[in-house]
Amino acid sequence: MEAVPAAALWVLTVLRLPIAQDPDRGSVFRATILAAIACTLYVPAVYYGIDSLLGGQNRVGLATLLSLLLGFWQFRTAILLAAVADKEVRRRQLTLGRWAVGATCAAVTAGFLTSRVDVTDPNLPLTYGDQPGMAVFLWTGSSFIMWICVDIARVCRSNVPHMHTPAFRSAFTLIAVGCVLFALVLLDRLLYGAVIKVEGTASPTAAVLTSFYWAGETCAVLLVSLGLLLPRLAGHFKHGTFGLRARLLLWETTPIWNRIAFGQYELVLQDRRASRLSFFCRHAENQLHRRLVEIRDCEMANPETSGRLGAHDRSVVERAEHALETRSGAQLTH
């Protein structure tokens, strides 16, 4: 079960690789790769294997938490850059995040270094939570992540109504819900630690909390991942839908082009009759645009050809032209 969030985050990281160097969107890539590293290190087999190579002092536990803290900080940065339009408000929020993550990383590192954690155990807070340093490690890290989650949810909730496209509104809603769920997962772990001290690990309450933890963590990661992917998926779907429409229009204009433009060698690029197989060409939108331009050029050069365009033909040409104009206008305003 631990591998599911890690796998989802690595897939998201690979998909975000093209924007790694983007100054405006690179924080999303950094957030996903840091979170992927943290989730991977938390997988027991990976944790035990790497920690044994490092001497068995639970240093992997510190690296896991630091990666998670930095990942959440970068994720909050990405949300602020994407959602907050007011530059001064955004600058103050980003500055607050930098100070908060610096102080938190220093505190959890100090708490870890002042604790005795000699035996490798992925559940550091539960195993060594009675030590003051480990309490600082646990509560400081948990408080920071919960604050980040609540703050991201707040930013998303405040800005969703002002977003113009349904895809972005849905994406930020999914991210907000995922962050709230992740905060509840952290609260679950804190309650679990208190419950097992009183009732033991075999209690029904502990079993319910454990079930919620694994299901909640997986759902939270998947919701946030889907929220980050949704605008891109919507764009691909929209592009694919228009591509099919362009191919159908290309199919309809083929006989019209053959009647009007074929043989006008000085006005057309293609010196052979157009085939219906052009439906399967690689760049249907470009082919359709060229075909419409050539039909109109032939009309202007030979006015008598206008009479060869019937009402149905004109309707097809005008629909195709309108489709391309709408597409160009949407790309300019996007």
The shape is elongated
* Discrete helix count: 11
Largest sheet: none
* Helix content range: over 70%
Total strands: the figure is: 0
> What proportion of the residues form beta strands (DSSP E)?
under 5%
Q: How large, in whole angstroms, is the Cα Rg?
A: 29 Å
> What series of H and E elements makes up the topology?
HHHHHHHHHHH
Q: Please, what is the average pLDDT?
A: 82
Distance between the termini: 40 Å
Descriptors:
single chain; 334 residues; mainly alpha; 11 helices; 77% helix; elongated
What does it look like?
With 334 residues, the chain is mainly α. Helix content is 77%, strand content 0%. It is built from 11 helices and no strands. α4 packs parallel to α7 (132-159), α8 runs antiparallel to α9 and α9 (204-260) crosses α11. The chain is elongated.
How are the SSEs ordered, and which strands pair?
Layout: H1 3-15, H2 26-42, H3 44-53, H4 59-83, H5 87-113, H6 124-128, H7 132-159, H8 166-199, H9 204-260, H10 284-301, H11 311-333
Helix pairs in contact: 1-2, 1-9, 2-4, 4-5, 4-7, 5-7, 7-8, 8-9, 9-10, 9-11, 10-11
